[in-house]
C-alpha cells in the first residue's frame, strides 16, 4: 500500500486529519468523516489516505523526530512531517504550494540515530515503553514492534445467514478478495482494497467487520442454543452478535452496557444480522445486576480497558493516553468483575476479557478475583499475542461458579 507518493490534495487531507486528531483531540474516525464528507474520493484514494494517516500515527514520534518538529505542532509544520514521511519511504515528495523542506544530510543523520533507538523506531511513547517493559519484560519489544504494523482487515462470517465458503464466492463476485484465517473458523481476511461497507453482502448482513482476535475471544464463550447468556459490557455488540450466531438465534442473549447510544447501535446491527434473540438493557444502577443474580449460563465481561492490545487499529490513543489512566481502569475492572459475577448461575461460566496484553489488567485481575471468591474455579486463560498472531491483542479467562 505504501508504494507511491500521495497527491498534493491527499497530502493536505492527511495533514488536516492529523491536526484535528492531535491538536483538537477528536477521535480518528470522526476526523475522517469530517474531512471526507462532501468529497468525491475514489475508494482507492480514500484507502491510501487512511493507510498513510494510520502509519504516521503509529510512528508519530519517529516521523516528527525525522522532520525535527514537535508532535504538538502538526497544523503549522504538517508539510515538513509529510516530507519526512515520504523521505523515510524513499518516495518522491509531493509538490505542495507551500512546503517546509528538509535537508537531506540532516535527515540521513537523524534516520541513522533513530535506528539506534528501537522504541522510537517502533513509534512508542516513553511512558508506554516504560509500562510495557515493567509489565511484559522480555516479551515487550516484539509486541511493541508488532503494534507498529498496519492492522489487517478481517470480517466475521454471519453463521445465522451464510457460510464461509458461500460468503467467499459472493464477495468474489463483488470484486472483494478474501481468504480463510487458520485457527479462527468464523473469520475471513480481506486482501483487496475493496470498500466493504458498500457491498451487497454487507447490506444483507452476511458479515461484520471484526478483528480475528476479537472473534477468538467471542468463540471462548461457547454459548449453546437455548442457553441464557449475558454480555454485560456489550458496547455496540461486536461480541454479542458472534455469540448470537453460536446460539443459532435460540435462547436468551442479554446485551448490557452503561451507554444507551451503544445499545441503540447494537440493536440496529442485530436487526441486519437477523440476531433475533438479542435483548438490550441499560445498566442504570447496581440493582440492574442484582435482579439477574444467579441467572445466566454464561456471563461475558468484556471490560473497559487500556486498549493497549489494539493500538495498531487505534494508533491515536497512544498520543492521547497517559499512564495515570491505567490504575483507574484496573479499579473499575475489579469492581465490575466482583459485582457482575453475581449473575453467573451455579455450574455457569464467567468469561473475563480485555483488549489489553498487560498482566495487570488480565491474569493479575483474575488471580485476585479467584482468591477473593473461592466459589469460582479457574478453567483456562489465554493472551492473544499481537506478535505471534498478527491479530489485535486480547486476553480471556474462563472461570466456573461451583457454589452460590
Ligand atoms: C471493551 S468495550 C466492549 C466492546 C464490545 N464488547 C465489543 O465486542 O464490541 C467495554 C464496554 O464497557 C462499557 N462499560 C464501561 N463501564 C461499564 C460498567 N460499569 N458496566 C458495564 N459496562 C461498562 C463501555 O461503555 C464499553 O462499551
UniProtKB/TrEMBL annotation:
Q: Which residues are noted in the entry as S-adenosyl-L-methionine-binding?
A: 257, 302
Q: Kindly state a single biological-process term from the GO annotations of this entry.
A: methylation
List the InterPro entries hit by this protein, alphabetically: MeTrfase_RsmB-F_NOP2_cat, MeTrfase_RsmB-F_NOP2_dom, RCMT, RsmB-like_ferredoxin, SAM-dependent_MTases_sf
Active site (record annotation): 355 (nucleophile)
Say which domain of life the source belongs to. Answer: Bacteria
The record's keywords, sorted A to Z, are: Methyltransferase, RNA-binding, S-adenosyl-L-methionine, Transferase
One Pfam family of this chain: Methyltr_RsmB-F
Membrane-spanning residues where?
none
SAM-dependent MTase RsmB/NOP-type domain residues are 143-404
UniProt GO MF annotations: methyltransferase activity
Family the UniProt entry places it in: Belongs to the class I-like SAM-binding methyltransferase superfamily. RsmB/NOP family.
**Protein's UniProt name:** RsmB/NOP family class I SAM-dependent RNA methyltransferase
Amino acid at each position: 500500500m505504501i508504494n507511491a507518493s500521495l497527491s498534493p490534495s491527499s497530502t493536505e487531507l492527511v495533514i488536516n486529519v492529523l491536526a484535528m486528531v492531535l491538536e483538537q483531540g477528536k477521535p480518528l474516525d470522526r476526523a475522517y468523516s469530517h474531512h471526507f464528507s462532501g468529497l468525491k474520493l475514489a475508494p482507492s484514494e480514500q484507502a491510501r489516505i487512511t493507510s498513510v494517516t494510520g502509519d504516521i500515527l503509529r510512528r508519530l514520534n519517529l516521523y516528527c523526530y525525522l522532520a525535527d518538529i514537535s508532535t504538538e505542532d502538526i497544523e503549522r509544520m504538517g508539510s515538513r512531517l509529510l516530507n519526512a514521511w515520504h523521505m523515510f519511504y524513499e518516495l518522491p515528495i509531493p509538490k505542495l504550494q507551500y512546503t517546509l523542506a528538509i535537508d537531506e544530510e540532516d535527515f540521513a543523520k537523524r534516520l541513522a540515530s533513530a535506528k539506534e533507538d528501537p522504541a522510537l523506531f517502533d513509534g512508542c511513547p516513553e511512558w508506554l515503553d516504560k509500562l510495557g517493559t515493567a509489565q511484559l519484560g522480555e516479551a515487550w519489544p516484539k509486541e511493541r514492534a508488532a503494534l507498529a504494523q498496519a492492522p489487517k482487515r478481517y470480517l466475521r462470517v454471519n453463521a445465522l445467514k451464510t457460510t464461509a465458503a458461500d460468503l467467499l464466492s459472493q464477495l468474489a463476485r463483488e470484486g472483494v478478495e478474501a481468504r480463510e484465517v487458520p485457527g479462527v473458523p468464523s473469520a475471513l481476511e480481506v486482501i483487496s482494497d475493496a470498500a466493504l461497507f458498500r457491498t451487497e453482502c454487507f447490506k444483507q448482513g452476511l458479515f461484520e467487520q471484526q478483528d480475528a482476535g476479537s472473534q477468538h475471544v467471542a468463540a471462548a464463550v461457547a454459548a449453546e442454543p437455548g442457553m441464557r447468556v449475558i454480555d454485560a459490557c456489550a458496547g455496540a455488540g461486536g461480541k454479542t452478535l458472534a455469540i448470537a450466531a453460536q446460539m443459532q438465534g435460540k435462547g436468551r442473549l442479554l446485551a448490557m452496557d452503561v451507554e444507551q447510544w451503544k445499545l441503540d447501535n447494537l440493536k440496529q446491527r442485530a436487526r441486519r444480522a437477523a440476531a433475533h434473540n438479542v435483548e438490550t438493557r441499560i445498566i442504570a444502577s447496581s440493582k440492574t445486576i442484582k435482579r439477574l443474580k444467579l441467572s445466566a449460563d454464561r456471563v461475558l465481561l468484556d471490560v473497559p480497558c487500556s486498549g493497549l492490545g489494539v493500538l495498531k487499529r487505534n494508533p491515536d490513543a497512544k498520543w492521547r493516553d497517559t499512564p495515570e489512566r491505567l490504575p483507574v481502569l484496573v479499579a473499575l475492572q475489579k469492581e465490575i468483575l466482583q459485582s457482575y459475577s453475581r449473575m453467573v448461575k451455579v455450574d455457569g461460566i464467567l468469561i473475563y476479557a480485555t483488549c489489553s496484553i498487560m498482566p495487570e489488567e488480565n491474569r493479575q485481575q483474575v488471580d485476585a478475583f479467584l482468591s477473593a471468591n473461592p466459589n469460582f474455579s479457574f478453567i483456562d486463560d489465554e493472551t492473544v499475542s499481537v506478535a505471534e498472531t498478527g491479530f489485535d491483542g486480547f486476553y480471556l479467562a474462563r472461570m466456573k461458579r461451583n457454589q452460590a
